[in-house]
Automatic annotation (TrEMBL):
One biological process term in Gene Ontology: DNA-templated transcription initiation
Membership in a protein family: Belongs to the sigma-70 factor family. ECF subfamily.
Organism: Kitasatospora acidiphila
Keyword annotations: DNA-binding, Sigma factor, Transcription, Transcription regulation
Gene3D superfamilies on file: 1.10.1740.10, Winged helix-like DNA-binding domain superfamily/Winged helix DNA-binding domain
Top-rank taxon: Bacteria
Record domain RNA polymerase sigma-70 region: where: 15-79
Protein name (Swiss-Prot/TrEMBL): SigE family RNA polymerase sigma factor
Residue ranges constituting the RNA polymerase sigma factor 70 region 4 type domain according to the UniProt record: 104-154
GO molecular function: DNA binding; sigma factor activity
Pfam families in alphabetical order: Sigma70_r2, Sigma70_r4_2
Length: 171
């Protein structure tokens, strides 16, 4: 395949998936600026291995897995703690009218440990099955189940404390 054709194919893929990758990255890290950095690193990794990526059965799954790996790798290195821009986070305007609920959920999600957060985002935002989540995180299905359970329990506790009302519907 010619380089121009390869680049055009890659550009088309990134153009169609960048917004989705950014939303998933934001749910993982809770910071729009950091989400942009995660997506940029993910796109760079995808580009360098595009020949292999384009042959994958599920390119979206490959991209999602790469994004999660970039996020977890960054969490282990810890540099984000020194470069956090939380004071200058610009929230995007939401269409949902219950902004307080959304902000409470974002804060509770940000309080989860990285693996639990990644598991909850993949399972309940990306709507992956236990098996698909296990594949994306390179772990066992039992680990996904326990991380999901612990993550949801923690979210329930945090949201109940914030609202002083038991949280229904968070299953």
């Amino acid at each position: 395949m010619a380089k121009a054709e390869r680049d055009a194919e890659f550009t088309e893929f990134v153009s169609s998936r960048a917004a989705w990758l950014r939303k998933v990255a934001f749910l993982l890290c809770g910071d729009w600026h950091r989400a942009d950095d995660l997506v940029q690193e993910t796109i760079t990794r995808l580009y360098t291995s595009w020949g292999r990526v384009r042959r994958a059965d599920n390119i979206d799954g490959y991209a999602r897995r790469t994004l999660v790996n970039v996020f977890l790798s960054e969490q282990r290195r810890g540099w984000h703690r020194f470069t956090s821009s939380r004071e200058t986070v610009e929230e995007e305007v939401a269409v949902d009218l219950d902004l307080a609920r959304d902000l409470d959920l974002r804060h509770a999600l940000a309080a989860l440990p990285a693996r639990q957060r990644a598991t909850v985002v993949l399972r309940y935002y990306c709507d992956l099955s236990v098996e698909q989540t296990a594949e994306a995180l390179e772990c066992s299905t039992g680990n996904v189940k326990s991380q999901s359970s612990r993550g949801l329990d923690t979210l329930r506790q945090l949201l109940t404390i914030r609202s002083n009302v038991p949280v229904k519907g968070l299953t």
